[in-house]
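Please, structure for the following, as tokens.
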Amino acid sequence: MGNGNSWQKRQRSYNKKGFKAVSKPKVLKYEAPFPLEKVYITPFSKQLVESDSGKSYAPISKNEQPSGFPVFDDYVVLLSNGSKQFDKLCEQYGIARNDLSSLVFMFTGLPSDEFRRRYMVRMADELLRYTDLDYAEVARRCGMGTKMNLYWTMKREYGISFDERRKALRKEGDLDKFQL
């Protein structure tokens, strides 16, 4: 099982003389204002509601501006759509990709690659649990691209295949709880 701290492994780079220099991982000196739990946007549009008159589906309210900072909010919306067009986002706002990465780190406390990976894993978990989508479609919707990427991500994170992950997550009645 992954411990979720893979980004904290020492990063290697080369100094001016060509020797490997080991740098310490970045760590915020304050609590991140927007951890994944606060900015995650579910892929579902409707949720099952049971009342005296029976079952029906109600729209799910989605906060697509969790931080109030347009660049970061648009980045999160791209992730929620399974998109990887981050260069277009940077071009739209006139910033460099490193600027976006720094912003993500300051807002979430995680390097942008780690934040994006955790976001995709969480979305994949929801899609595996609450839908019968085939694995290629789950991978596409969560931004992993291919079925093989989904498979290896589940293996790295949980030590099991996506099929085993779906079985481990799913509880009775889960398939009816949400609609895309």
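The radius of gyration is 19 Å. The CA atoms of residues 78 and 84 lie 7 Å apart.
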